[in-house]
Amino acid sequence: MRGRGALAILLAILLSVPVVGGQNATMQDEEEEMDPCMEEPEQPCANQTVLYLWSNGQSRHWSHFNANETDNAGDNLLYQEKTQGVISIDERFTMNPQMTKKLNMTLDGEIRIVLNIYLEGDWTNNDNQGPCTNDCEELNVTLWSGATAILRQHVPQVSEGWNTITIPHRITNQQTLWDSSTANPAIQIEMKVKGDRQQTSPFTVSGEIANFSLRLSGDGNTRVELPIDPTSWEEGFQEDDTPKMAEEQPGFLFMAALATMTLAAVYLPSRDESLENGRNRG
Fold first, then answer.
1. How far is CA 95 from CA 124, 162, 236, in A?
2. Within a 10 A sphere around the Cβ of 87, how many other Cβ atoms?
3. Which of 233, 213, 147 lies closest to 184 in space, CA to CA?
């Protein structure tokens, strides 16, 4: 009986020892000291709340929160040009790699989109100032959060040459939470510009070429500033809100096994007691 009591005491001591040891605690302290921006440099963090636009200058366009990108076009430009006919611009700069963090946007905080665009040709239909009839389209800019359009802005106030375009937007109640699984950000730029340059004689030409050029984020000017609330970086915000089942908690199986052994040691009769009880019955 004394042996079973000692075993029960030993098991109780084991139950009181934390499942997670000191080594893991030390690792957690080291992780907390690391700069989260360095750990995932293309993801948003407390010091990185600006989305930058990148392109290889041809068919690949993307965005992320790092102000540096080695694969960006060498001249920091995305451009198309055509002597005659329509240039159709419909480019979407989707975040790549995909966002892995949940973001809380500040209610009534301001999103600010800044674009630098160079234009030549005509883009306004039926204004009698160029070749556009019903085949052109003025500039439209859309900011996406996954499949949800946060804002879509028609921008008619542009001119030939370089244009610095600033688009502000205030976050509404329905736009505060950007979940990483459904709200990967993207910015879409759409426009149709038409050219009508032609040779009118061996020595003269008339009309204008069509040109659309977007300065990318290599100089930091083209960007999307997001009002990410500081609560996004608080401990626990990034964790899953769904309560875990007991079986999913760390050390659950180990603790359950020790509890079962303790009960067995205390309440199950020993072999000697069983034999004594058998003799008494006989």
1. 31, 26, 24
2. 21
3. 147
Dist CA 138 CA 125 (whole Å): 9
Integer Cα distance of 38 and 55 in angstroms: 23
The letter for the amino acid at 200 is T
How much is the pLDDT for 18? 54
Band of the pLDDT at 143, cuts 50, 70, 90?
very high
pLDDT over 60 (residue 245): no
Q: CATH number for the 39-232 domain, one of 2.60.120, 2.30.30, 2.40.160, 3.30.70?
A: 2.60.120
Structural domain boundaries in the chain: 39-232
For 137, the 3-state DSSP assignment is strand
How does 223-235 read in b/e, with b if 16+ C-beta sit within 10 Å? bbebbbbeebbee
